[in-house]
Amino acid sequence: MREFLEYIAKQLVDNPDAVSLTEEEKEGRTVFKLKVGEADVGKIIGKKGRTAQAMRVLLSAVAAKNGKRAILEVMD
User: Fold this and answer.
1) What span, in angstroms and rounded, lies between the C-alpha atoms of 4 and 58?
2) In angstroms, rounded to a whole number, what is the distance separating the alpha carbons of residues 26 and 33?
3) 44: domain range?
4) How many domains does the chain have?
5) Does residue 60 have a pLDDT over 90?
6) What 8-state DSSP symbol labels residue 68?
7) 29-35, strands of its sheet edge to edge
8) Per-residue pLDDT tens for 31-55?
9) Residue 35, domain CATH
């Protein structure tokens, strides 16, 4: 799941070196915290949050396939 999210995020931003993804377990769920460069936050969130929501849907599908639950948080 981690590699999947990193790949998607790096493809969306102008500065892929600034992409940072941390992972932690909370209440039986995996929480992924995505940090990108200040100029790229808008590209990750997208218009009306649609890009971030699409990433969350894909993450949920991959997690469900592995029998897990996952959440994506976009940090600035």
Assistant:
1) 9
2) 12
3) 2-75
4) 1
5) yes
6) -
7) 20-26, 29-35, 70-75
8) 999 999 999 999 999 999 999 999 9
9) 3.30.300.20
